[in-house]
Design a protein that fits this description.
Blueprint (H helix, E strand, L loop, with lengths): L2 E5 L4 E5 L3 E7 L5 E8 L3 H8 L31 E4 L9 E9 L2 E8 L4 E10 L2 E12 L4 E6 L2 E4 L7 E6 L7 E6 L4 E6 L8 E8 L10 E6 L5 E7 L5 E7 L6 E3 L4 E3 L3 E6 L2 H17 L10 E3 L1 H4 L5 H14 L3 E4 L29 H9 L3 E6 L3 E2 L4 H5 L19 E2 L5 H18 L3 E4 L19 H19 L4 E4 L9 H4 L4 E3 L6 H11 L8 E5 L13 H8 L3 E4 L8 H23 L1 E5 L6 E7 L2 E8 L20 E5 L5 E3 H6 L12 E12 L2
Parallel strand pairs: 22-23, 22-31, 23-24, 24-27, 27-28, 28-29, 29-30, 30-31
Antiparallel strand pairs: 1-2, 2-3, 3-4, 5-10, 6-7, 7-8, 8-9, 9-20, 9-21, 10-19, 11-18, 12-13, 12-15, 14-17, 15-16, 16-21, 17-18, 25-26, 32-33, 33-34, 34-37, 35-36, 35-37
Helix pairs in contact: 4-5, 7-8, 10-11
Bound molecules: alpha-D-galactopyranose.
Length: 698
């Protein structure tokens, strides 16, 4: 069971999760040092560890062992997790221990500066159903203004190992979440976003192992930052062999003034240790997200239709009504009208910011379409981009000051748009007001909340502390979403930023799913989904079936393959259904019905990534007595069939019935010799296997 204890004899805190321990020690000089993050420790074992005094380094090295948040000050030469400058110009901190609080699963360790009235509190929280440890920091100033140039949420430290390897996610628009593994260099390696968004280029998830871990074995330490604006994580491997990382919101070069009486609270930075490989790490994160991050864990995500790839900006009531009729026939449960329904938004050149239905396209507003969608038995969803404005809009003409801008500098347009400064109370109030009205007046069940460009010239002329907007903009987005959800309990939100540019635990705390990528090519998606699944569960992974050839890659693939790839997430359809031949509509309806049957397993089950033999990749979902396997073979070199797929997740003592063929298989045989897959010939072959456990073997 989880437990938080203070062992006063060693000035030691011991945090237990169901299968891991985390230990921290207070040094003689009141520095909070890291002791242990890994397998369970008894209090006596933790005491033994605490008794070890780290060898003192040379006069050129950081003194002492790794800290829980290494601040600038004293003999510290690594990346600082806290950097402040006091009003008198003095820098650096010296701590005096000021007590701790333990309250249920929450530990708060307080440190006061020895001279200045500045308090740092290190927070830890553990849960009884997860090995994830949540950490964050608060800094309170009760004196003259303090300039903060860095305030991280946490630093994480690994035990000594022979080697260290990092796993991280990289990408770009249309190619998010690509998993990379590389040896940790003996250097400071920075992972960061300076875009004001979580970013496509790097995701604030990082895993480190000793280079020997694999999908189903090996120790893995992984962390995820719950923040949707700019961020920075610095991984530091020293020549002496220590590996630590420190991370938090904001990128380098920003400063925030902490005025008298103010507290800066960082976002959560969560960490997970597992002894059983990358697969177990992902399953640990998935369970944590389901239990402690998303707000409606018991729900299933509805099968969605989205108009974007079908109609682009050519959105009008007759066209959307025709698509809705076809979508309903396929079994779609949520119909989402994408960009192009408002203002002068007939292309990406105008209209962003003018959030009233375009009268030429929707002469009677959106209500008739919403009513028709509801009459067809579907929920009604709408695309919005509340943080952005086209200069060619009534909003911008009325409020040119509302955008991020800097005196004597241009206003760089990207996708013909500028970023609204939601750190401004008037701009944030405006955004909440129209969103609330829109949802209320049109009976909207679902919003796709997009953010289609990075921040530039992120200033606020006349504001004494302009860099604060890098934090306050993101906080305002959170507040608006939180208020909307409180005011409209049925409302569900999809997070989107040009696809997967805003995917993190912070946005997921107030949204229900993530639009994974604008790239809907199923071959590319296999890799994107593989990376996404390192941290996020299938239930939040928006995945659409779109037209063939694919609009982004021109690759042609069969409908069944497109479905089988998208069925590994929250299934959606995004093709132009008015052009799909009758037999494809029929096949699609059958596949949607199949998805609904396997959906409890996909969305509420436990996911196992199955490697296959190189030509094939697969994922299996286990839920109660069911196991669903989706296997994909994008190409067949030399025409060879893939080897049978070992289903190592199965109970070897059980038997399983294949609901497709009726055949009964032994779990032991399927786990060891593998499941022969009935793949159609050629490239872009896929199969769905649905197994139900039948009986215990004698
Ligand atoms: C972004 C989204 C797309 C679509 C367009 C609309 O690119 O990721 O899905 O909504 O904006 O402009």
């Amino acid at each position: 069971m989880p437990d938080l204890r203070f062992l006063p004899d060693q000035r030691l805190w011991l945090l237990d999760t169901p299968s891991t321990s985390y230990a921290v020690r207070l040094d003689e000089d009141d520095t909070v040092r890291h002791l242990h993050w890994g397998a369970r420790l008894t209090p006596d074992q933790a005491r033994e560890l605490a008794g070890r005094i780290p060898a003192s380094g040379s006069s050129f090295d950081t003194a002492g062992g790794p800290e829980e948040l290494g601040a600038e000050g004293g003999a510290r030469f690594g990346p600082a997790g806290l950097q402040v400058r006091f009003a008198d110009g003095s820098r650096g901190v010296e701590w005096r221990y000021a007590g701790h609080d333990i309250d249920e699963g929450h530990l708060a360790v307080h440190l006061d500066d020895r001279h200045y009235p500045l308090r740092l509190t290190l927070h830890y929280r553990v849960h009884d159903d997860s090995d994830v440890i949540e950490r964050w920091t608060t800094v309170t100033n009760t004196g003259d203004p303090v300039t903060v140039t860095r305030c991280d949420s946490a630093a994480w430290t690994l035990p000594h190992r022979a080697d260290y390897r990092m796993s991280h996610l990289v990408g770009a628009w249309n190619s998010e979440f690509r998993l990379r593994r590389a040896e940790v260099p003996v250097a400071e390696t920075v992972f960061t976003s300076r875009t004001g968004l979580t970013s496509h280029q790097a995701n604030p998830w990082l895993a480190v192992d000793d280079g020997t871990a694999a999908e189903e074995y090996g120790e893995v330490w992984s962390t995820a930052l719950a923040w949707s604006g700019s961020w920075r994580i610095t991984l530091h491997r020293t020549p002496a062999g220590r590996t630590t990382w420190t991370g938090g919101h904001g990128h380098e070069g920003l400063t925030w003034t902490l005025r008298q009486g103010e507290t800066l609270e960082t976002p959560l930075y969560a960490g997970l240790y597992t002894a059983d490989g990358f697969g177990a790490a992902s399953r640990g994160w998935h369970a944590y997200v389901s239990r402690h991050v998303v707000e409606h864990p018991a729900e299933v995500r509805p099968v969605l239709y989205n108009s974007w790839e079908a109609t682009g900006f050519d959105v009008d009531e007759p066209g959307q009504t025709a698509l809705a009729a076809r979508a309903a026939r396929l079994g779609v449960e949520l119909f989402v009208v994408d960009d192009g329904w408002f203002g002068e938004r007939v292309s990406d050149h105008a209209g962003l910011g003018d959030w009233t239905p375009n009268p030429d396209r929707f002469p009677d507003g959106l209500r008739p379409l919403a009513a028709e969608v509801h009459r067809l038995g579907m929920l009604f969803g709408l695309w919005v981009e509340p943080e952005m404005v086209n200069p060619d809009s009534d909003l911008y003409r009325a409020h040119p000051d509302w955008v991020l801008h800097t005196a004597h500098r241009g206003r760089t347009e990207m996708r013909n748009q500028l970023v609204l400064n939601l750190a401004r109370p008037d701009t944030a109030a405006w955004a909440y007001e129209w969103l609330d009205r829109l949802v209320t007046e049109n009976d909207i069940d679902f919003l796709k909340w997009d953010a289609n460009r990075a921040f530039t010239e992120a200033g606020w002329p006349g504001n004494a502390d302009p860099d604060r907007l890098w934090l306050d903009h993101t906080r305002a987005v959170y507040q608006i979403m939180d208020r909307l959800r409180a005011a409209h309990p049925r409302l569900r939100i999809e997070a989107c930023s040009g696809g997967g540019g805003r995917a993190d635990l912070g946005i997921l705390t107030r949204t229900d799913q993530i639009w994974t990528s604008d790239n809907t090519d199923p071959v590319d998606r296999i890799g994107i989904q593989h990376g996404f699944s390192q941290l996020f569960p299938a239930r939040v992974m928006g995945a659409w079936v779109t037209d063939s050839p694919n609009v982004a890659t021109a690759r042609a693939t069969p409908l069944r393959f497109r479905f089988h790839v998208a069925m590994a997430g929250a299934l959606g359809i995004g093709g132009d259904l008015t052009t799909w031949p009758e037999e494809e509509l029929k096949e699609a309806a059958e596949l949607v019905a199949t998805y609904k049957r396997i959906r409890p397993a996909v969305q509420h089950g436990t996911a196992y990534r199955l490697g296959g033999d190189g030509t094939l990749s697969a994922v299996a979902f286990a839920h109660e007595d069911e196991v669903v396997v989706l296997a994909w073979c994008p190409s067949r070199p030399f025409g060879h069939d893939p080897a049978p797929l070992p289903l190592t997740l199965l109970d070897p003592s059980a038997s399983y019935r294949d609901t497709g063929t009726g055949a009964v298989h032994s779990g032991a045989v399927l786990a060891d010799a593998g499941m022969p897959l009935d793949l159609p010939p050629g490239d872009h072959a896929s199969v769905l296997v649905h197994l139900v456990r039948v009986a215990q073997e004698g």
